[in-house]
């Protein structure tokens, strides 16, 4: 008797059934998330309308959530802690028009977003979570490392406002600029005597988090990619391909301060890829030098009138001083 499991049409049948089942599960989860988000928004609306209706005196306002939490948990069980009710109230307060909420984000996403007090930063994280399809864990990390403020430093007021409204979409080499890139996920202990090879290996072992830090659209090509010129071998630390920009992205990791010869070396790599590796459909490659320190004036002079797509950016292995970054952005906005 013929083994039907080896039949191509049967295999396709299994695939079709599995695809339909998984799609249904996804739609169910999405529908549940949408309905729960709407319910929590309504609860927040009821609480605020009750408060604004003068039903309670202002000095008793704090007690309202405590009383509500106790009564609702007795009647409906878990889910109505004072903290949850407070964030439901905040949800309506920050999003009085329900249509402004995205059906692509869950209540857990908005719970995290509502912890961000700055409206500009919250709008950015909301847009970016949608663009990048962030999980809750990814959203928490980007908040913790101050992504909005790292991207906003160095931009003028209009660019910061645009960033908060639209999120960050990588459209050119300048969109790789962050001040600094944060690689805390590499988990190097403080005072550890690491070298460039250690960082490179750690990046490969944590490639998903590294790509999240770089931004959307990167495909990993390889590490220590060798090129040969004039009978000499050169090795590029990391090579990626950016799907949207349709170009190779060459990355060199440097311990300490970036030097002008590092910039010259990256220009050599870019020239080689442009002439020897690029296909007709590929755009000009982008070079990204990541260093612990950089002298902005030296970098400016080393790249004066240069046409190559090269970015020099700092990285650090530990969390940045978020308050300092916030203050820098605040200064720009106020000016």
TrEMBL record:
What's a single GO MF annotation on this record? nucleic acid binding
YhcG PDDEXK nuclease domain span: 175-329
Question: What would be one Pfam family of this protein?
Answer: DUF1016_N
- YhcG N-terminal domain span: 17-150
Q: Which residue positions does the secretion signal occupy?
A: none
Q: Which InterPro entries match?
A: PD-DEXK-like_domain (IPR053148), tRNA_endonuc-like_dom_sf (IPR011856), YhcG_C (IPR009362), YhcG_N (IPR041527)
UniProt protein name: DUF1016
């Amino acid at each position: 008797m013929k083994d039907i499991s080896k039949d191509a049409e049967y295999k396709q049948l299994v695939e079709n059934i599995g695809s339909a089942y998984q799609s249904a599960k996804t739609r169910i989860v999405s529908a549940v998330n949408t309905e729960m988000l709407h319910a929590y928004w309504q609860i927040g609306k009821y609480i605020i309308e009750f408060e604004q209706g003068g039903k309670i005196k202002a000095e008793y306002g704090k007690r309202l959530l405590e009383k509500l939490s106790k009564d609702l948990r007795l009647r409906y069980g878990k889910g109505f802690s004072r903290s949850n009710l407070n964030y439901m109230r905040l949800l309506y307060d920050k999003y009085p028009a329900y249509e402004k909420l995205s059906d692509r984000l869950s209540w857990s996403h908005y719970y995290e977003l509502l912890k961000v007090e700055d409206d500009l930063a919250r709008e950015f994280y909301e847009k970016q979570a949608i663009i990048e399809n962030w999980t809750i864990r990814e959203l928490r990390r980007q908040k913790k490392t101050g992504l909005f403020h790292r991207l906003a430093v160095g931009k003028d007021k209009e660019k910061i406002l645009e960033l908060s409204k639209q999120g960050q979409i990588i459209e050119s080499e300048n969109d790789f600029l962050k001040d600094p890139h944060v690689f805390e996920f590499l988990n190097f202990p403080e005072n550890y005597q690491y070298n460039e090879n250690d960082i490179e290996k750690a990046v490969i072992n944590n490639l998903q988090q590294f790509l999240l830090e770089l931004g959307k659209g990167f495909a990993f090509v390889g590490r220590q990619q060798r090129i040969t010129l004039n009978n000499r071998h050169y090795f590029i630390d990391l090579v990626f391909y950016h799907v949207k920009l349709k170009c190779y992205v060459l990355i060199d990791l440097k311990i300490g301060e970036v030097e002008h010869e590092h910039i010259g070396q990256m220009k050599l790599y870019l020239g080689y890829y442009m002439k020897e590796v690029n296909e007709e459909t590929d755009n000009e490659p982008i070079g990204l030098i990541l260093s612990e320190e950089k002298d902005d004036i030296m970098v400016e002079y080393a790249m004066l009138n240069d046409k190559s797509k090269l970015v020099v950016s700092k990285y650090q292995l530990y969390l940045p001083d978020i308050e300092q970054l916030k203050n820098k952005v605040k200064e720009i906005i106020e000016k």
